[in-house]
Amino acid sequence: MSFLWAIIAGLIIGLLAKLVVPGRQPIPLWLTVILGIIGAVAGNGLASAFGVRDTGGIDWIRHIFQIGIAAVLIALITPMWARRRA
């Protein structure tokens, strides 16, 4: 069941990251989900390193880390994907 949650979280985080990155990102949905999953895992690690992974309420800082890392990955991967498709 955690695999399913990872896919759902990756989809949400990936789509939010695509909204943060300016311009058009012509990458497929499956790649958005994978980059979102990687961003979620790396964001959790970064939040743990800063000691803000688990807080009393909603973990806003952890989510910002997750979306930020996914946005950076999307910004880096999109030009490579566009060159590959051209």
Automatic annotation (TrEMBL):
Superkingdom, taxonomy of origin: Bacteria
Topology with respect to the bilayer: Multi-pass membrane protein
Recorded GO CC terms: plasma membrane
Subcellular location: Cell membrane
Keyword annotations: Cell membrane, Membrane, Transmembrane, Transmembrane helix
One Pfam family recorded for the sequence: Transgly_assoc
Transmembrane segments: 27-52, 64-82
Family: Belongs to the UPF0410 family.
Family matches, as PANTHER family: UPF0410 PROTEIN YMGE (PTHR33884:SF3)
Protein name: GlsB/YeaQ/YmgE family stress response membrane protein
Lineage: Bacteria, Bacillati, Actinomycetota, Actinomycetes, Kitasatosporales
